[in-house]
Amino acid sequence: MATPDTLPLSCVEPNPDISGIGVRLAIYIQAFVNIACVILFSLDNHISAFEHKVLINASLNLFVSGCALLICTAVQGTTFGLSLHHALIVLNLNWIIGFSGLLYVLIMEYNYLRGRRSDGRKHSAADNIKNLASMILVVTSVVHLCGVGVIGVWVWVTSRTFGGQPECNPLTSLRILGMKVNALDPRVRKASIAIYAIAAIPVVNTIVIVLLASIIIGFLLAVYPLLKGSKPHEPQWRGVVLVGMISVVVILDIAFIVSTELMISRGCVREGEGQWTYGQTLALMGLILPIIDTAKMVRSWWLGLNQEERQRQREEGWTKPLVELPLPRRAQ
User: Fold this and answer.
1) Cα dist. 61→70, 266, 294 in Å?
2) 116 in helix, strand or coil?
3) Which residues neighbour 149 within 8 Å (Cβ) at sequence distance 6 or greater?
């Protein structure tokens, strides 16, 4: 029987349907398209009703993709056998999805706490409840986070014997802040179980995320006035909070992307991981419709914005010709 000492460094069977370039690209593109929409729509320091709809759709597409990936992981892990290496990659990809999708959820929560609607106007406490799309997004984000937590606890609790190739698990490693850490390290295992256990509990996971976001906002609340000499109730403060949230999500996403790519490029997987498969093609094909829909909505937003600008210019006389040309009149 093979043991970790007698196994080659490239031990795990390739599984391009899970960690192939097509699957990864589809997730990375969706995640950063969502972030780009948030940045674009936040330039004027408020989010209109139409921008709200675009961000809801983009975030929902992310969470649906993440839930589909988790379901595939659960099915493959309990039937055909999924290696520990590929299970950890799935968890990384879902954290990227989760952070990007939760960005707008946190912004909605901030607007609610600040007493403003997503379009910048004052709102009552029942506004978010009446908004069905917002509630669907919040529920979907919680379901996805719970799914990540359940899969994570399952993977880490059984990490020594997980998957169809448990003899390869001692060779499996992950990257934390660029450093290589063995997946069976007891400290990493205990910390991971604790994190994923929190993520698996519906109410607790939401409270923890809101608390973390509040800590970030509190840090900005303490630092920004010292640097700029402004007060938190001034208009530019809302822009500072948006920039802070976006920056944190971008940093976390990049950190998980780098970790995932290092795990794949320097992992213990045999040749064949780069092979193009049906699953990767399907992942990229499934990306087309959400991207097209988002592009159409952004185009409509841009055209509407330009139309409003042209109307404002007409009202202010900006479009009036500087010189009236004496055009000849037609003969009667």
Assistant:
1) 14, 31, 10
2) strand
3) 196, 197, 198, 199, 200, 201, 205
What is the distance between the alpha carbons of residues 59 and 57, in angstroms, rounded to a whole number?
A: 6
Alpha carbon distance 311, 315 (integer Å): 6
- Cβ proximity of 15 and 168 under 8 Å: no
Is there a contact between 153 and 193 (Cβ–Cβ < 8 Å)?
Answer: yes
Cβ neighbours, 10 Å, residue 296: 11
Q: How far apart are CA 311 and CA 284, in angstroms?
A: 40
What's the number of CA atoms in the CB half-sphere (13 Å) around residue 169? 21
pLDDT in tens, 135-152: 888 889 899 999 999 999
What residue type is assigned to position 296 of the chain? K
Please give the DSSP secondary-structure letter assigned to residue 6: T
DSSP state of 209: H
DSSP 24-42: HHHHHHHHHHHHHHHHHHT
Q: Is the pTM of this model over 0.90?
A: no
Backbone angles phi, psi at 319, to 5 degrees: -95, 5
The string of pLDDT tens digits covering residues 18-52 is 888 888 888 998 899 888 888 877 776 667 777 77
